[in-house]
Design brief:
The chain is built from 4 helices and 5 strands; from the N terminus they run E-E-H-E-H-E-H-E-H. The protein has about 120 residues and is α/β, with parallel strands linked by helices.
Length: about 120
């Protein structure tokens, strides 16, 4: 798994490529913690368009990040391609809790307009 993060205007973008599973989840968790600690305001775009698989450990990292952002009065948007992760959020009813977007541009614009 490869995780990169950078600041773009009022947003912190975290891009993930590879499986979000028991092996990769700690890497994402560490990167998210670092990115969220440095973010001001706490607006996170989590780009998962290059993540073909997510297990329960990976889903736990997403839920923990979502809960942290909400506690800190921030916003987080998941950028999702059609496929496994979007389906996983739907069957677990988490799609009702996560803000999602179809593109990085759309997510950045949504957070930028909310700032």
């Amino acid at each position: 798994m490869v995780v990169r993060s950078w600041r773009e205007g009022p947003c912190t973008v975290v891009h993930v490529a590879g499986d979000l599973d028991v092996a990769g989840a700690p890497r994402l968790q560490a990167e998210l913690e670092q990115a969220m600690a440095a973010a001001d305001p706490l607006n996170v775009v989590l780009d998962l368009t290059e993540v073909p698989f997510c297990d329960s450990v990976g889903l736990g990292v997403l839920v923990a990040a979502h809960n942290h952002v909400r506690r800190m009065n921030g916003r987080m948007i998941l950028v999702l391609a059609p496929g496994m992760i979007r389906h996983l959020l739907t069957i677990t009813n988490l799609d009702r809790h996560f803000a999602t977007s179809h593109s990085l541009t759309e997510a950045r614009e949504a957070l930028g307009s909310a700032a």
